Amino acid sequence: MGDLKMFSASEVSFHTSRDDCWLLINGKVYDVTKFLEDHPGGEEVLLHASASGDATDAFENVGHSTAAVSMMESYLIGSVEGYVPPYVASGEASSRPTTYAEANKEKQATFVDYLLPVLVLIFAIVAWYYLTFVIEDEKK
Ligand code: HEM
């Protein structure tokens, strides 16, 4: 690391060719020109991700290994000033949920969710009452 530069997003968008290919991932800029041939996923996907402007989603959707993530370090050349993550730029959300509980927070239990257990309980009490008292009474 050491000599990392600050780039504007528009500058990054000029480097999308086979002999000059940069990737913008999570606000960081990677020069993957020398990596194109060696990338296990092929060079086409890298060129496409580069041309798309922001390769963050493409990179993350693949579910790259930690080995892949640590390889990135060697291609890092800088970062983008005032970087806006793609999910914010697209207006999808102001922040991405990070936990299961956060992602499901609107799904609070409703009345119907309680109805079934309550009905089962009422049925069990009625059955117990019936078996304990009504049948016993009949035997007498
Ligand atoms: C500097 C950036 C990148 C590095 C260092 C990198 C590295 C790697 C590595 C090491 C693998 C092998 C599997 C693994 O270890 O996860 C891989 C697979 C793959 N990569 Fe990347 N990658 C980068 C960017 C991208 C981008 C932007 C895309 C866009 C779609 C992409 C698409 C893929 C695909 C589709 C595979 C799967 C290949 C397969 O399983 O057949 N990669 N990458």
From TrEMBL:
<keyword id="KW-0479">Metal-binding</keyword>
<keyword id="KW-0349">Heme</keyword>
<dbReference type="InterPro" id="IPR001199">
    <property type="entry name" value="Cyt_B5-like_heme/steroid-bd"/>
</dbReference>
<comment type="similarity">
    <text>Belongs to the cytochrome b5 family.</text>
</comment>
<dbReference type="GO" id="GO:0020037">
    <property type="term" value="F:heme binding"/>
</dbReference>
<dbReference type="Pfam" id="PF00173">
    <property type="entry name" value="Cyt-b5"/>
</dbReference>
<dbReference type="InterPro" id="IPR036400">
    <property type="entry name" value="Cyt_B5-like_heme/steroid_sf"/>
</dbReference>
<dbReference type="InterPro" id="IPR018506">
    <property type="entry name" value="Cyt_B5_heme-BS"/>
</dbReference>
<protein>
    <submittedName>
        <fullName>Cytochrome B5 isoform D</fullName>
    </submittedName>
</protein>
<dbReference type="InterPro" id="IPR050668">
    <property type="entry name" value="Cytochrome_b5"/>
</dbReference>
<dbReference type="GO" id="GO:0016020">
    <property type="term" value="C:membrane"/>
</dbReference>
<feature type="transmembrane region" description="Helical">
    <location>
        <begin position="111"/>
        <end position="131"/>
    </location>
</feature>
<keyword id="KW-0408">Iron</keyword>
<feature type="domain" description="Cytochrome b5 heme-binding">
    <location>
        <begin position="4"/>
        <end position="81"/>
    </location>
</feature>
<dbReference type="GO" id="GO:0046872">
    <property type="term" value="F:metal ion binding"/>
</dbReference>
<keyword id="KW-1133">Transmembrane helix</keyword>
<keyword id="KW-0472">Membrane</keyword>
<keyword id="KW-0812">Transmembrane</keyword>
